Amino acid sequence: MESKIKVAAVSYLNTKPLLYGIENSKVISNIDLLLNYPSQLATSLKNGDIDMALLPVAAIKDIPGAEIVSDYGIASDGNVASVAIFSQVPMEEIETLFLDYQSRSSVKLAQVLIKQYWKKNIRLLPAGEDYIEKIKGKQSGVIIGDRALIHANEFAYAYDLASAWKSFTGMDFIFAAWVANKKLPKDFLQLFNEANASGLKHIDEVVAKNPFPYYDLKKYYTVNIKYYLDENKKEGMHRFLEMAEHED
């Protein structure tokens, strides 16, 4: 019997349409599906613990042989709603920024924008688990995923990072893509791609399965997040990775 392909993703709401398609496709019989923080997926892929992951794009360059293997991922062409710098004071008054420990691409994007777009010299601090409580006064924080949607109304200012990237470069942004660092069967990848596409045809079912009082998930899935990684989005990704390299 062929061993199953180990596929990992995050359990955030933004992945639910893709996971719905995968879980309701015959491709699921070939998969061991695992869920983890985005920042931990890169280590698992690099170590060979998994075969494929919905990987933060900032991590791709650190994994030998890593390449994007699907037409689908997590992207935006403007306001993404769930990746932002939150603060109680305007950007010009911010002195400290806590960097969300769950993400890598979002943190790197924040660093690029602070330096090159807002042109600010802000003290960057790694965030502990309780860092959201410390966002007060001139201390700000990058919050991503479901927690960004949950806590958004608690802050006077929210600087959406995908929107700022669009204003800065005029380009779309890819946060995560399906990445593998080994050869996977062509027929599996085709089936996997079709499963992703299928999930996007069932947004109403996904919304119904995930009650969420903090934000309109129909809007989130159809307006804020763009799942198909077209050439514009890939161009934006390459531009981001070039800029991020200069920040390392």
Can you give keywords for this protein?
single chain; 248 residues; alpha/beta; D-Maltodextrin-Binding Protein, domain 2; 2 domains; 5-stranded mixed sheet; 9 helices; globular
Structural features, described:
- There is one protein chain.
- This protein has 248 residues and is of the alpha/beta class.
- It folds into two domains: 5-75 and 172-230, D-Maltodextrin-Binding Protein, domain 2, CATH 3.40.190; 83-169, D-Maltodextrin-Binding Protein, domain 2 (3-Layer(aba) Sandwich), CATH 3.40.190.
- Helices cover 37% and strands 24% of the residues.
- It has helices at residues 16-23, 38-46, 105-117, 145-151, 161-169, 186-199, 203-209, 217-224, 231-247; strands at residues 5-9, 31-35, 52-56, 67-76, 83-87, 96-99, 123-126, 139-144, 157-160, 173-180, 226-228.
- The chain has a six-stranded mixed beta sheet with strand order 2-1-3-10-4-11.
- Helix 3 links the parallel strand 6 (96-99) and strand 7 (123-126).
- Helix 3 (105-117) crosses helix 5.
- The longest helix is centred in the C-terminal third of the chain and has 17 residues, at 231-247.
- The model has no long low-confidence stretch (mean pLDDT 94).
CATH superfamily of the largest domain: Periplasmic binding protein-like II
Q: Give the proportion of residues in helices.
A: 25-40%
User: What is the CATH C level class of the largest domain, in words?
Assistant: Alpha Beta
Shape, per Cα inertia axes: globular
Number of separate domains: 2
Q: Which CATH architecture of the largest domain would you pick?
A: 3-Layer(aba) Sandwich
* Major β-sheet annotation: 6 strands, mixed
Strand content: 15-25%
- The secondary-structure element order is EHEHEEEEHEEHEHEHHHEH
| Rg, alpha carbons | 18 Å
Total number of β-strand segments?
A: 11
Average pLDDT: 94
Q: Order of strands side by side in the largest beta sheet?
A: 2-1-3-10-4-11
For the terminal residues, how far apart are their CA atoms? 44 Å
Low-confidence stretches: none
Reported by name, the CATH topology of the largest domain is D-Maltodextrin-Binding Protein, domain 2
The total count of helices amounts to 9
**SSE class:** alpha/beta
